[in-house]
Structure formats: structure tokens, C-alpha cells
Write a structure and sequence with these properties.
alpha+beta; 3-stranded antiparallel sheet; 3 helices; elongated
Length: 99
């Protein structure tokens, strides 16, 4: 990830991070949807988890279950639109900005 000037946004080494005296934490919010049951008789239902991972971790560790944080489960029955997600995501964003 680079800044508009082309320099690296995150420190590239621990030494750079220590010199900057800042912790730049990259987080990735992801939402996935799935149908827990398929039926030709009942209505379709979609549910899904909201999770966060730390992008500063090496790729081989980033998506390991122990490094994922489940922050919510969206129950459905349909996929939420942006307006329905706002009340849930606003407190999360506020908390992330405090880090």
C-alpha cells in the first residue's frame, strides 16, 4: 500500500516502525454470505459472518482462524443493503479509529 506520493504507507521493517513511534494497523473487513440450507419447498435464507483480519500479518498467517476476529453474524433472511449495515458498522469504525 502506497501513499499518493508513492512512498510506502506502512513501515517496511520493525526498525522503521520503532523510529516512527507509531503503530500503523491495517485491517480488512469482510462479509460473506451463504445459504445454510437449500430446499425446493421453503423460502431461501441467507446468513453470513462479518470478520476482521490484520493485514500487517504475513499472508500465510493473515487468514488463519486464530488470527481472524468474528465481529458479527448477519442473520438474514436476505443480504442487507448499505443502509441496514450502517448502524452495525458505525460503532466498529469508531472503535477502530480509537486504536
Amino acid at each position: 500500500m502506497v501513499t499518493p506520493t508513492g512512498t510506502c504507507f506502512f513501515p517496511q521493517t520493525w526498525q522503521e516502525a520503532i523510529e516512527q513511534n507509531k503503530l500503523w494497523l491495517g485491517v480488512l473487513l469482510s462479509m460473506d454470505r451463504f445459504s445454510p440450507s437449500q430446499s425446493t419447498v421453503s423460502k431461501s435464507h441467507s446468513t453470513g459472518p462479518l470478520s476482521v483480519c490484520i493485514t500487517n500479518l504475513p499472508p500465510e498467517l493473515r487468514f488463519c482462524v486464530r488470527n481472524l476476529c468474528l465481529i458479527g453474524i448477519l442473520p438474514g433472511p436476505k443480504e442487507p443493503n448499505a443502509q441496514q449495515l450502517q448502524p452495525f458498522l458505525c460503532p466498529l469504525v469508531d472503535n477502530l479509529l480509537c486504536l
